[in-house]
Write a structure and sequence with these properties.
It is a single chain. With about 375 residues, this protein is mainly alpha-helical. It has 3 domains: about 5-75, no CATH class; about 85-175, Orthogonal Bundle (DNA polymerase, domain 1); about 205-380, hpI Integrase, Chain A. It is about 45% helix and about 10% strand. The protein has 15 helices and 6 strands. The protein has helices spanning about 5-10, 50-65, 70-75, 85-100, 105-125, 140-150, 155-175, 205-220, 220-230, 235-240, 275-280, 310-320, 330-340, 345-355, 375-380, and strands spanning about 15, 20-30, 35-40, 245-250, 255, 265-270. The strands form 2 sheets. A 3-stranded antiparallel sheet has the order 1-2-3. A hairpin with a 5-residue loop joins strand 1 (about 15) and strand 2 (about 20-30). GO terms for molecular function: DNA binding. Keywords: DNA recombination, DNA-binding.
């Protein structure tokens, strides 16, 4: 028998039932020079009906691969490749929940990935021939899903790239748990933002004045949140994680720890006097130091709230009452604050205040670990 014949030698896969359900077959091991048994256990599938259906599909798959020359001792494909696609999705959901509890993923990331995961399930269910096993989750499937999102549903390139980021995360999870031996997203590129400018939605001075007056009269605690976004550029998702102990009146700084910051790095931000005065007027520091700065009713408290409360109040109260355009979102205050501060101070001071790594590419040439308050910003008085 030639070497090629030896490598292709195998016995047909057979299902064995009883106390232990399993599929086995023999294939020639060229290293040892003998036929070696391969066994795939099936007892992890509880339902007998599902176990038989699983076994049938697995045997068909193995038979096709063996007939074309595949050898398990050469390729070393993991047995986990025959796990059900839906079961791996459930395992990934459990993984996401654990990452959220440990603070490894932001709440917004979990929310987005959970939505993408469900949409991927629906996409698969609506296919003429849905994939059943995890080994069928391949590059072709990923490309078809991305085309569905970008072309068929006519979403933006940004949305398509967000789906790609999710697929990369799911693929990495599968690789790390030996459900796959190759990355299905390898070679799939992002479309990027080329040719499309970011919409800044800058609030003009007269609109800022209206917003300021409205908040002073209707919700001064929301005004404080707006000040922190406008003057300190602290993201809403980070604001809800701030505690009073993170604020130093002596140093005139706010400390954003790595467990709440978007880039997972510690950051020290200068707190302008205007913001401090509002805090003192609202008696913020009469509360325990371990209280969240923004809790129920936007006031300090024990309960951590979702950053969604800022967006909702802005949209349903302020923007509605002032009859502002929908383009003026709560987050527009950050873009407006950065733009207006750049008109008064050097780009490096603003870059460090914003913890931004790409303003005029200054991050390449300058340090990013400012630990003291910036004297220029301490007494900064903006239009807001």
């Amino acid at each position: 028998m030639s070497k090629i014949q030896e490598i292709k030698s195998y016995t047909p896969p057979i299902l064995h039932t009883g106390k232990d359900w399993y599929i086995d077959f023999y294939a020639f091991n060229p290293v040892d020079g003998v036929m070696k048994r391969k066994k795939i256990k099936l007892n992890f599938i509880k339902s007998v009906k599902e176990r038989r259906a699983y076994a049938k599909g697995c045997i068909n798959r193995l038979s096709e691969k063996l007939a074309t020359g595949w050898n398990p001792w050469i390729e070393q494909e993991c047995g986990n490749a025959f796990l059900l696609f839906k079961d791996v999705i459930d395992k990934y959901r459990t993984f996401l929940a654990k990452m959220q509890r440990d603070g490894r993923y932001r709440q917004e990331t979990i929310k987005s990935y959970s939505s993408y995961l469900r949409n991927m399930e629906i996409f698969n269910e609506e296919k003429k021939v849905p994939i059943t096993y995890i080994y069928q989750f391949d590059k072709d499937f990923c490309v078809m899903l991305l085309d569905e999102v970008y072309i068929t549903r006519d979403n933006t390139a940004f949305t398509r790239d967000n789906y790609l980021g999710f697929l990369k995360s799911f693929s990495t999870f599968c690789l790390n748990h030996n459900y796959l031996t190759q990355n299905p997203t390898a070679g799939i590129s992002s479309l990027g933002r080329k040719g499309k400018k970011k919409l800044r939605n800058i609030l003009p001075p007269e609109t800022l004045a209206k917003v300021s007056d409205y908040l002073k009269n209707h919700n001064p605690y929301m005004l404080l949140a707006s000040y922190i976004l406008y003057y300190c550029f602290i993201r809403p998702a980070e604001m809800v994680g701030l505690r009073l102990n993170d604020i130093s009146l002596k140093k005139q700084t706010i400390f954003v720890s790595d467990n709440i910051s978007k880039n997972r790095k510690d950051g020290t931000i200068t707190l302008p006097s205007k913001v401090i005065h509002l805090m003192l007027d609202l008696h913020i520091f009469n509360n325990p130091g371990d209280y969240y700065l923004f809790s129920d009713g936007f006031r300090p408290g024990k309960t951590k709230r979702s950053e969604k409360m800022f967006r909702d109040w802005w949209a349903h109260h302020l923007r509605k009452d002032l009859k502002l355009s929908a383009q003026y979102k709560f987050y527009s205050l950050k873009d407006t604050g950065i733009t207006n501060m750049l008109r008064h101070y050097d780009v490096l001071s603003v870059r460090d205040q914003a913890r931004h790594s790409s303003i005029l590419m200054t991050d390449i040439y300058t340090p990013h670990d400012i630990q003291e308050a910036n004297d220029l910003i301490k007494n900064y008085q903006g239009d807001f």
